[in-house]
């Protein structure tokens, strides 16, 4: 179907209006791509030195293998619009993405932007699987994880997506990217079980390189601006104002999350400033503002970020107490933070004149802005649906991989370290 003659609801299905829009989308995608480096530095800095290279290789695998499968079928299942096959559950068409000379500008701009989101969702999982996963098994999972991601992406952003038709709000991927990635990580860490001797020692394992972890946080912070601001899907018309609002709400939220991280560490760690607390506070707040970044005022962003950072820090501590071994804190940050982000949209979102610019026609004001319970109900439904879908599909794929080729490295290799075993370093 000619997308230029078909109108969908939601910013990700708008036809690109101008060269400026395409330039904005591509530039934002380039910025988002640098988040792979951020995740790599954060994760490699958080694990022991004997596994640093392995973590970086897994992040490269996410782009290589995840990007390939997204081009083959992930984009088609998310944003395909061939009639009569496209339906509320999945898209159909645009497999093995290609475009004619006339339409290649907007087709390829949109595809590259969406591919940067899809590979990010897979990268999130690698942190939860760190230090005990076979690389060849992870390669297979990174390809299969495209299936886990692409259907929720269709429900929320795609043509005829059933949650989109109900008016769900998710501007920049709190659900399909962060919740799906974080929940997949939760399943993975439970299937893998904790690292050797992880809970026989009373103290938390030391970071291999706190400096690298902090540098990774800064790169993710930078990438998040492209993530959120680029999700206006252009700067023509009034969209540049939405992009500016997204930038300010994102920064506002992250400063609040940083304050939470510093204060909670100062209190819990007895007057010391723990690097992990700071990182989790900032990243949790960034996830928290993702769903509604273009639809809230700065002070609302502060509140959302404050709660997002608190949810993440508390969640990471609770998961650790239950011996769920998540080396980088991806479950607390992305799964719990993503769920809060979706719910926050049901509380704080504003359906002002700018919402029309994104064709969010079915969206209502959040509960705290006089919109009643409808929007909060839709957001809650999305959270429940994505949770059930991700837990089931991730478990299915991971168990198949575990049965066929084994998921966890042998104990002696885990003790020796993946860098020397799998990379000869």
UniProtKB/TrEMBL annotation:
<feature type="transmembrane region" description="Helical">
    <location>
        <begin position="137"/>
        <end position="157"/>
    </location>
</feature>
<comment type="similarity">
    <text>Belongs to the ammonia transporter channel (TC 1.A.11.2) family.</text>
</comment>
<dbReference type="GO" id="GO:0097272">
    <property type="term" value="P:ammonium homeostasis"/>
</dbReference>
<dbReference type="Pfam" id="PF00909">
    <property type="entry name" value="Ammonium_transp"/>
</dbReference>
<feature type="domain" description="Ammonium transporter AmtB-like">
    <location>
        <begin position="24"/>
        <end position="424"/>
    </location>
</feature>
<keyword id="KW-0472">Membrane</keyword>
<feature type="transmembrane region" description="Helical">
    <location>
        <begin position="303"/>
        <end position="319"/>
    </location>
</feature>
<dbReference type="GO" id="GO:0008519">
    <property type="term" value="F:ammonium channel activity"/>
</dbReference>
<feature type="transmembrane region" description="Helical">
    <location>
        <begin position="275"/>
        <end position="297"/>
    </location>
</feature>
<feature type="transmembrane region" description="Helical">
    <location>
        <begin position="331"/>
        <end position="349"/>
    </location>
</feature>
<feature type="transmembrane region" description="Helical">
    <location>
        <begin position="111"/>
        <end position="130"/>
    </location>
</feature>
<dbReference type="InterPro" id="IPR029020">
    <property type="entry name" value="Ammonium/urea_transptr"/>
</dbReference>
<dbReference type="GO" id="GO:0005886">
    <property type="term" value="C:plasma membrane"/>
</dbReference>
<feature type="transmembrane region" description="Helical">
    <location>
        <begin position="376"/>
        <end position="398"/>
    </location>
</feature>
<protein>
    <recommendedName>
        <fullName>Ammonium transporter</fullName>
    </recommendedName>
</protein>
<comment type="similarity">
    <text>Belongs to the ammonium transporter (TC 2.A.49) family. Rh subfamily.</text>
</comment>
<keyword id="KW-0924">Ammonia transport</keyword>
<feature type="transmembrane region" description="Helical">
    <location>
        <begin position="213"/>
        <end position="235"/>
    </location>
</feature>
<feature type="transmembrane region" description="Helical">
    <location>
        <begin position="169"/>
        <end position="192"/>
    </location>
</feature>
<dbReference type="InterPro" id="IPR001905">
    <property type="entry name" value="Ammonium_transpt"/>
</dbReference>
<feature type="transmembrane region" description="Helical">
    <location>
        <begin position="55"/>
        <end position="73"/>
    </location>
</feature>
<keyword id="KW-0812">Transmembrane</keyword>
<feature type="transmembrane region" description="Helical">
    <location>
        <begin position="22"/>
        <end position="43"/>
    </location>
</feature>
<keyword id="KW-1133">Transmembrane helix</keyword>
<keyword id="KW-0813">Transport</keyword>
<dbReference type="InterPro" id="IPR002229">
    <property type="entry name" value="RhesusRHD"/>
</dbReference>
<dbReference type="InterPro" id="IPR024041">
    <property type="entry name" value="NH4_transpt_AmtB-like_dom"/>
</dbReference>
<feature type="transmembrane region" description="Helical">
    <location>
        <begin position="247"/>
        <end position="268"/>
    </location>
</feature>
């Amino acid at each position: 179907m000619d997308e230029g003659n078909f109108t969908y609801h939601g910013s990700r299905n708008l036809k690109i209006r101008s060269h400026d829009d395409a330039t904005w989308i591509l530039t934002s995608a380039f910025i988002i791509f640098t988040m792979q480096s951020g995740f790599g530095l954060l994760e490699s800095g958080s694990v022991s030195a004997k596994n640093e290279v392995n973590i970086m290789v897994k992040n490269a695998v996410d782009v290589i293998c995840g990007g390939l499968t997204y081009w083959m079928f992930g984009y088609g299942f998310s944003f395909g619009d061939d009639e009569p096959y496209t339906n509320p559950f999945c898209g159909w068409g645009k497999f093995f993405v290609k475009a004619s000379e006339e339409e290649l500008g907007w087709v390829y701009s949109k595809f590259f932007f969406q591919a940067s989101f899809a590979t990010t969702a897979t990268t999130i999982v690698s942190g939860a699987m760190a230090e005990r996963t076979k690389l060849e098994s992870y390669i297979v999972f990174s390809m299969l994880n495209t299936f886990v991601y692409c259907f929720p992406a269709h429900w929320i952003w795609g043509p005829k997506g059933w949650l989109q038709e109900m008016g769900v709000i998710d501007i920049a991927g709190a659900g399909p990217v962060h919740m799906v990635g974080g929940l997949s990580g939760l399943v993975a860490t439970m299937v893998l079980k904790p690292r050797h001797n992880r809970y026989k020692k009373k103290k938390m394992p030391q970071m291999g390189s706190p400096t690298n972890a902090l540098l990774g946080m800064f790169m993710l912070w930078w990438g998040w601006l492209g993530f959120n601001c680029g999700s206006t899907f252009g700067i023509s018309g009034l969209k540049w104002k939405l992009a500016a609002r997204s930038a300010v709400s994102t920064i506002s939220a992250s400063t609040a999350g940083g304050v939470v991280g510093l204060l909670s560490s100062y209190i819990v760690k007895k007057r010391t400033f723990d690097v992990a607390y700071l990182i989790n506070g900032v990243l949790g707040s960034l996830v928290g503002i993702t769903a509604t970044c273009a639809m809230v005022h700065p002070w609302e962003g502060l509140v959302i970020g404050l709660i997002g950072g608190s949810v993440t820090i508390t969640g990471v501590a609770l998961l650790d107490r239950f011996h769920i071994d998540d080396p980088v804190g991806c479950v607390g940050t992305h799964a719990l933070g993503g769920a809060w982000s979706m719910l926050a949209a049901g509380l704080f979102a504003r359906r002002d004149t700018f919402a029309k610019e994104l064709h969010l026609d079915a969206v209502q004001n959040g509960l705290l802005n006089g919109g009643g319970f409808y929007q909060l109900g839709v957001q809650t439904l999305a959270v429940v649906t994505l949770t059930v879908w991700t837990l089931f599909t991730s478990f299915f794929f991971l168990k198949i991989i575990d049965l066929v080729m084994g998921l966890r490295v042998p104990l002696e290799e885990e003790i020796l370290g993946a860098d020397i075993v799998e990379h000869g370093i």
